[in-house]
Design a protein that fits this description.
This protein is of the alpha/beta class. The protein is built from three helices and ten strands. Keywords: 4Fe-4S, Iron, Iron-sulfur, Metal-binding.
């Protein structure tokens, strides 16, 4: 899935040795499946790991990836380029801009997850939020969960009805209803 060169792995090991114990690596894509897709690497503390993350084992460290972007990371490579000036990580993900939401071979769940990542989450991320598809019930109800700044936000009702639900029902006629399964707790993380 993600080929990390030996030089890059050694670089990560060196960087992680200076971080708090338990800190690992996260690979992410902002706006996956769009022409504006951007790949990145960041530290990932134990508190940053979410239920929908996939844990990849490397030599002396782990990489966490949101399950919904796995298809965009096909044949991706992370390398460390060293020259006279210094060093730089390179991240090549040839499928990061591939739009999988139109792929009819994908399951409905995968298509909705990709749709959320491409069309809804870029807007929500401006407020530090994100929406995830938990599952599709037998009666074609999409069960979703908001995280980050959306959790506990006073505008969540509007976001749910006017953005998320309208768009899902419009683009996926097989979905009959959208239900928010988030246990909304207002706190410092909430946007409003």
């Amino acid at each position: 899935m993600i080929n990390i060169s030996d030089k890059a792995q050694n670089h990560f090991i060196s960087l992680l040795s200076k971080e708090p114990i338990g800190t690992q690596i996260r690979v992410f894509i902002i706006n996956p499946g769009t022409q504006n897709a951007e790949c990145g690497v960041a530290y990932c503390t134990e508190d940053d790991v979410e239920n929908h993350d996939i844990k990849l084992n490397y030599n002396h460290f782990f990489v966490y990836v949101d399950r919904s972007i796995i298809s965009f990371l096909k044949n991706s490579e992370i390398d460390l380029i060293v020259d006279n000036v210094g060093s730089q990580l390179t991240f090549k993900a040839p499928y990061a801009k591939q739009n999988y939401s139109k792929n009819t071979a994908s399951s409905l769940k995968e298509r909705i997850e990709n749709f959320l990542n491409n069309n809804i989450n870029p807007q929500l991320s401006m407020h530090g939020g994100k929406v995830h598809l938990i599952q599709i019930s037998q009666n074609n109800t999409a069960l979703i969960k908001f995280t980050g700044g959306c959790n506990g936000c006073s505008m969540i009702g509007t976001t749910l009805k006017e953005i998320v639900e309208k768009k899902i029902l419009s683009f996926f006629p097989e979905i009959k209803k959208v239900i928010d399964q988030t246990d909304h707790l207002h706190g410092n993380h909430s946007f409003y």
